[in-house]
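Re-running the complex after MR caught last week's input typo. The corrected sequence lines follow. Everything else is unchanged.
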Amino acid sequence: MPDPVAIGIDLGGTQVRVALVQGGRVLARASEPTDVAGGPEAVLRQFARLTEKVTARADPLDIIGVGVASPGPLDSGTGTIIDIPTLPGWSGFPLRDMLTKQMRLPVVLENDGIAAAFGEWRHGAGQGLRHLVYVTVSTGIGGGVIIDDRVLRGRRGMAGHVGHMPVVLDGPVCSCGGQGCFEALASGRALGRAARAGVASCPDSRLSAEPPDILSAQHVVAAARQGDALALRLLDDEARYLGLGFTGLIHLFSPEAVIMGGGVSQAFDLLSPGIHSGIQERAMAAFRNVRVLKAGLGENSGLIGAAALALDIEGATA
Amino acid sequence: MPDPVAIGIDLGGTQVRVALVQGGRVLARASEPTDVAGGPEAVLRQFARLTEKVTARADPLDIIGVGVASPGPLDSGTGTIIDIPTLPGWSGFPLRDMLTKQMRLPVVLENDGIAAAFGEWRHGAGQGLRHLVYVTVSTGIGGGVIIDDRVLRGRRGMAGHVGHMPVVLDGPVCSCGGQGCFEALASGRALGRAARAGVASCPDSRLSAEPPDILSAQHVVAAARQGDALALRLLDDEARYLGLGFTGLIHLFSPEAVIMGGGVSQAFDLLSPGIHSGIQERAMAAFRNVRVLKAGLGENSGLIGAAALALDIEGATA
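Corrected-run output:
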């Protein structure tokens, strides 16, 4: 009998991605820009269309379930979206039940950070660990936590909103409405903002060549790789902020490792020394040897993790 | 058959307390100032002496175990002290094994924050909850976490160091060596420091009557109860800082409630409105209705919790 197969769905604010997944491998994948304006009904049709594509050559009998990774907050217990800041019209939508009807398969709905943490634990950089914190640093900062060999869920399955740990008293306003959150300080969006502020006083930087309104974290990383002084300084600050936030997470959860994913982790080689020296400097002695690792599944952590949750009902409901 | 009885020991930097505990009730209790200079050997003799006192009228056959709550970091898996900043000479001391030999009873060693969390969960303000974060706000800030009906332990059992979440970038130096930790901002020690700074510019405050070098959080609370304007302003700030830190913990762990213990919780009635409005203001919508409760067991949370862990081997080892 072949290993069971599941469908992984990654619902994002810009893209819907669907994959056929077996163990840690993506067998087929398809994506479309998210039909934000169309709301849940249109997106459910996108799910159907993309699923048809990726399962075209699969035996339907081998597919045992569907895992959906979605931005939160969502209630993974009831399978209902609570609120997605980037997707209006989804509040209170019973996504799991609607999709179960449409797909005629068991469906697991999970916060995208928790799904990615699960993917990294089962098939990525966290294999064999008992305790890990996964942090995705992209436009925002999200994450998920595995401690004591279990997925940390909490009330309504909402544990692990690591981007909304306060790290700067009266700091910059955050997407969540709060102030000074880890996300507001260290996300890709914050790095882009720092770059736009930085070019004003560094006209010689390569970054000054970009139109300021599109200047983003990616440009900073590219310029740093070419030795640009401003870009390197911006990444030094970014590493320091990440080291600060990761130290907090290490004290709170006591993981064996912090796993970093998301777009900004493409600069992991440049950020890692600064992150680790920040932890060395700030963590209590007993926590200082905790390592930060780059995610092993790249942009597929959530997709593979969602499918893995569907394949591992014990993990999903434990 | 009577309910089983356990010995609870609370090893503190200033006091050693020992109690005979049945369920959530303290049957007998005794204490001595901690023999800090004498190190572990002297303190083990204190444990023996105090245990003799509290068990003088008990049937030894009813006593099924010993639970020790100790400052950390400690490794609850191996029963070894890692390091206690307030107690020199304890690093690496195998407290659980030494005490097992001395007492001839099964011994559980637990971080005092986790023990108190367990006590509040089983017998205090957290009874019936599935998810709670316990925070003790006294000289420092410590805590423990129960999520998904289990004690959160993590690597070496060191999860829940909630006092060392960074909340102020480049903030005041913390007892842990870091900077800007929640403890450095919102502990009783920090409140005392703020009071000493405040009296300089408020000579009319009742607090100016105290010798500045002994001015502490307790004086602030007492003066606030008499309507002193400076003391009330200091407590407003304290409530704001607590609300900030608790909001972070709510986003990270998704508890049903935060339970506040420790000396500063004696002012819970004065602090609660400010704490709750801070959470209302800063938390993401889905988390805003999480309540902060005053600890139900007062200064006995750790003592009762340690004994409860000894009585509940499943809870202790789960």
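None of the earlier attempt is carried over here. Chain A has ten helices and twelve strands. Chain A has a mean pLDDT of 95.
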